Amino acid sequence: MNTECISDHVKLKGRIYPCTISLTMDLVGGKWKAVILYHLKDEAKRYNELRKEMTSVTEMTLSLQLKQLEKDGLVARKVYGRKPPIKVVYSLTEFGKTFVPVLEAITAWGNQVVLDKGELVSVGKHKL
Q1: Among 1, 75, 97, 100, which is least packed by CB within 10 angstroms?
Q2: Per-residue pLDDT tens for 66-116?
Q3: What are phi and psi of 46, to 5 degrees?
Q4: How many structural domains are present in the chain?
């Protein structure tokens, strides 16, 4: 029997979910969490590097999503220095790295959807 079917609910860090898919979507769901994890999968990055790579996300949203990913143990935040300007670097934790195969599968599926049903477009400096 699959883990998600063994009991009525699952629990992680005091939160109860109706199934493991619900738990997963709470951790990585939404418009930006998986995108952030994708941009961190190969190397650690500073906040501004992420902003440059994710031009459509607002600063507030990126900041909130990074805090949530850190709280959930998927992203680590390392602060260098004690006085401004300090350097803050974000990276995947070991737990976060376990999601990389899922990110790669999502990326491959999205690429295939674009090839089969969509198109690549250039929007210049406009935000999507």
Answers
A1: 1
A2: 999 999 999 999 999 888 888 999 999 999 999 999 999 999 999 999 999
A3: -80, 160
A4: 1
